[in-house]
Design brief:
- The complex is a heterodimer of chains A (about 180) and B (about 120).
- By secondary structure, chain A is mainly alpha-helical.
- Chain A is built from six helices and two strands; from the N terminus they run H-H-H-E-H-E-H-H.
- In chain A, helix 2 crosses helix 3.
- Chain A is elongated.
- Chain A starts with a helix and ends in a 13-residue tail after the last helix.
- Chain B has about 120 residues and is an all-alpha fold.
- Chain B is built from five helices and no strands.
- The radius of gyration of chain B is 18 Å and the shape is elongated.
- The N terminus of chain B is likely disordered.
- The chains are: A mainly alpha (about 180), B mainly alpha (about 120).
Chain lengths: ~180, ~120
Amino acid sequence: MWADTLLIVFISICTALLGEGLTWLMVYRTEKYQKLKAEVEKQSKKLEKRKETHGDSLDKQHKKKIEREEERLKNNNRDLSFVKMKSMFAIGFAFTALLSMFNSIFDGRVVARLPFQPLAWIQGLSHRNLPGEDYYDCSFIFLYILCTMSIRQNIQKLLGFAPSRAASKQGNSLFGPAPGQFK
Amino acid sequence: MSTKTKTIERNGVSKSSQASLWIRALTSNSEWPDKEEFLDVIYWARQALGIILGIFWGLLPLKGFLGLILFVVINAGVIYFYFSNFQNIDEDEYGGAWELTKEGFMTSFAGFLVMSLQCM
């Protein structure tokens, strides 16, 4: 069981690195993406500052300016999402295939013992394809999701690919701040 | 030659700024002109805390919802103490105490669970 747990952590590190590597190849290194990202970050910061200084003022001119900038930011965010979309689909398909392969390898295998009994609505995930009624048993998919949640985001942050806070705060991107996080 | 010098200079600057970041993070009442830097410190501190608590909880072992609740309380408490008592920052500049308390929480929680599962 211990070896399985370690193996799953290793798998999720590899898939996170692979996912980021592929996204870098297809998206992050392109000039269009870099230009749009810089633009979105600049605008988000500018908008945040403007909102801080003029947020409570009832001046119509300021309000209009803020609205115009918000609109521009929304458009740029949409463009950024479209640039990402193509590669996201490709990576999504590849990773769904990988995930189903790992799922069949670990099918019916208890990969860890949970330190707590999960809530009823999580049990479907934490006990997926496992025999018996012992809900302390953990399935592959639950551990994989947990690992991905912690490892992928930290890798993104370490490599500098995570969206900036200002952009995710202001951003209404099509797929949210971290698309494909669990893939 | 000039490229080499430039690289060294650049590395020197990045190394010293990195060092100063560590010093500022570990010194009380530091100045944080860049908000993002301070939020990054909170984020990574929280990740480290999640991993350390996960190892402890796994080795003890501390099970059940009491373990989870204890983790949440300690994690939030330590970070709250760090920014309000140790660094004495103005919470409102960062959007309130809640924004700082939840910075990187879910990632830290996932890291904590993975580590406690490994060590149990």
